[in-house]
Known about the structure:
The structure holds two protein chains of two kinds. Chain A is 0% helix and 52% strand. By secondary structure, chain A is mostly beta strands.
Amino acid sequence: NAGVTQTPKFQVLKTGQSMTLQCAQDMNHEYMSWYRQDPGMGLRLIHYSVGAGITDQGEVPNGYNVSRSTTEDFPLRLLSAAPSQTSVYFCASGSRRNSPLHFGNGTRLTVT
Amino acid sequence: GQQVMQIPQYQHVQEGEDFTTYCNSSTTLSNIQWYKQRPGGHPVFLIQLVKSGEVKKQKRLTFQFGEAKKNSSLHITATQTTDVGTYFCAGKDNQGGKLIFGQGTELSVKP
């Protein structure tokens, strides 16, 4: 099992560009989520999903879109990148809503 | 909205000293989870507490969940250099599915 796979590992964008961060899990987990990690801010929840076809907003959803068309995939889309979105992004999944999370290795995004 | 506060932000200890990090929630939690993130790595699940007043141990690590289910602590006895990293608590309230993380406590251990 690969667990939670995130791509790419690193990305540099110019302000205004859009891109999609990919996240896939092969554990048949119902619950998937996206966090961003900034120094001194911990991990802040962007969006989450409790199952295919269901998504909801987290603490900091503005500027990001998600979709959950399959159980395995949960892509995060940046609509128009801004320097404030420079961060490390983690995707995480759990078997159910209250289960422990398995994290991917992260994507380090820089917006110039 | 739900907030989870964690203190201290940083802790520097000499190897062999004890370490404690504290977590407080603005709302009653259904459960609390603890994670460890090594430098340059991703968070890794340590333990989950569900019951009021629950205490769990993992070797030198002791985890507690408060009676009111609004606070928690992680205590490490006799720290080792392998304990280095950032420790996060994360809580879910009774209403929603959001797992909210504290800011983390970064532990450094001097040999």
